[in-house]
Structure prediction request, 67 residues.
Amino acid sequence: NIKLRPLISLALTACPEHGNNLFTLFKKAQKTLNYCNENDISGYLMYDDRLHNNLKKNPKRSIKSKF
Prediction:
């Protein structure tokens, strides 16, 4: 038996705190989601100008299923 655990990454932005239009909110959420994906973060991450610009990428090895 192989057990699969679905993982979700969710990026959150808020209006007007992170932008006043859909395009700006989308771009910031996409940057945050890309960071989650590159660093194997499962869960959610809220965009923050102060923190997001100072975060260092720390890629980790993903756990891959072998069939």
